[in-house]
Amino acid sequence: MSHSVVFEHVVKKYKMYKKNSEKLLDILFPDGYGENFYALQNISFTADRGDVIGVIGVNGAGKSTLSNLITGVIPPTSGKIEIVGQASLIAINSGLNNQLTGRENIELKCLMLGFNKKEIRALMPEIIDFADIGKFIDQPVKSYSSGMKSRLGFAISVNIDPDILVIDEALSVGDQTFADKCLDKMNEFKEKGKTIFFISHSIGQVKKFCQKALWLEAGEVKAYGTIKEIIPQYEKFLKEYKAMTKEEQRNFKQLVLEKRSKLAANK
Ligand SMILES: Nc1ncnc2c1ncn2[C@@H]1O[C@H](COP(=O)(O)OP(=O)(O)OP(=O)(O)O)[C@@H](O)[C@H]1O
């Protein structure tokens, strides 16, 4: 099986500035300034061609940061990322320019991906048809509902035929008919042996669609394996988490936060 995505000890660190002046001090001081925060810490995993991987984890675990790293939206702070082929991100707010119309966004995204005018003209009807947003295609994206944005993003990303598809919560908005249409398209991708990362809070969708799961917890890989292995462990964790009192949950979050900042302070 050939690799399509390889992460080796990948770290994504953010600086939390309290004031704008701290940004300047961060540049001026040799050791930097401001509080560090690890969105992701020491992430290593390998995805093969044809893998459909559900990325799971509670709010703030680092799922969106991971999807932005896979698709090159943001660079890692350290570590190595190998991507074989082209990766495309579908997220609720991914890469759409709010001031431009839907049609202009299609053109822009395709141009950025290296398509020429002729290729874009050929792709355009298919994308518009898939998005199914009617007259809104010639309206600025800022007038779209979140469902419409997601549909347009989805339509562009799947129709440009990427090798790696990252779907970040995009199916959580919009109606069931569109979700079904997207699932069909994703199955098509699966059959073509492409790699899919499916980020979702819906364990049902992950179970239905994915063979593997990557469980992120507090910016680290908690577990990676088959759905059969990982989902029961994750469900057990969620059950225990939900059973905690509000106070216990707060303490848990505080400990996680401290750990994620302290790790950075030691670097
Ligand atoms: N630009 C940024 N600056 C500072 N912190 C950030 C930035 N982007 C993300 N973070 C922090 O990194 C952590 C991981 O965020 P991320 O959005 O990847 O989590 P997530 O698992 O996708 O969460 P959710 O399920 O709520 O969407 C969060 O604590 C978030 O506050």
UniProtKB/TrEMBL annotation:
Keywords of the record, alphabetical order, are:
ATP-binding, Cell membrane, Membrane, Nucleotide-binding, Translocase, Transport
Task: List the GO molecular function terms.
Answer: ABC-type transporter activity; ATP binding; ATP hydrolysis activity
Taking every annotated instance into account, which residue ranges of this chain make up the domain ABC transporter?
22-243
| InterPro entries for this protein | AAA+_ATPase (IPR003593), ABC_transporter-like_ATP-bd (IPR003439), ABC_transporter-like_CS (IPR017871), ABC_transpr_TagH-like (IPR015860), Bact_Polysacc_Export_ATP-bd (IPR050683), P-loop_NTPase (IPR027417)
Question: Which cellular component terms (GO) are annotated to the entry?
Answer: membrane
* Pfam families hit by this protein: ABC_tran (PF00005)
Q: Does the keyword Cell membrane apply?
A: yes
Q: Which family does it belong to?
A: Belongs to the ABC transporter superfamily.
**What name has this protein been given in UniProt?**
Teichoic acid export protein ATP-binding subunit
Species whose genome carries this gene: Heyndrickxia oleronia
